[in-house]
Design a protein that fits this description.
about 100 residues, mainly alpha
Length: about 100
């Protein structure tokens, strides 16, 4: 249960960071779809002991989400996803230190 809440918090943080870089946050089917796919993917890795390197494939889902939600400007998608990963890393480090 705690792992599921942690995964949900992490995914919502990624989505909030992406929306912070582009526009105001709003719920729609793309956002809910990304949350469901990401939680199922991480649960598969955690429960079925799939190789943890598959967790990096979650960023493909984030890239597809960014393209569908904000448009397919490839340069902006790559730059903003790198910024998002950087911001989420800082948030995770800060939370772990507290």
């Amino acid at each position: 249960m705690v792992v599921s809440l942690y995964l949900l918090f992490e995914i919502l943080t990624v989505i909030k960071c992406l929306h912070g870089l582009y526009e105001d946050f709003r719920w729609n089917w793309k956002t809910v779809g990304l949350i469901i796919v990401e939680i199922l993917w991480m649960k598969m890795i955690h429960l079925y002991e799939v190789n943890h390197s598959f967790a990096s494939l979650m960023y493909i889902g984030v890239i597809i989400y960014s393209g569908l939600q904000f448009g397919w400007n490839h340069r902006a998608i790559i730059i903003n996803n790198v910024l998002c990963v950087f911001m989420v890393s800082i948030i995770q480090t800060t939370v772990m230190l507290l």
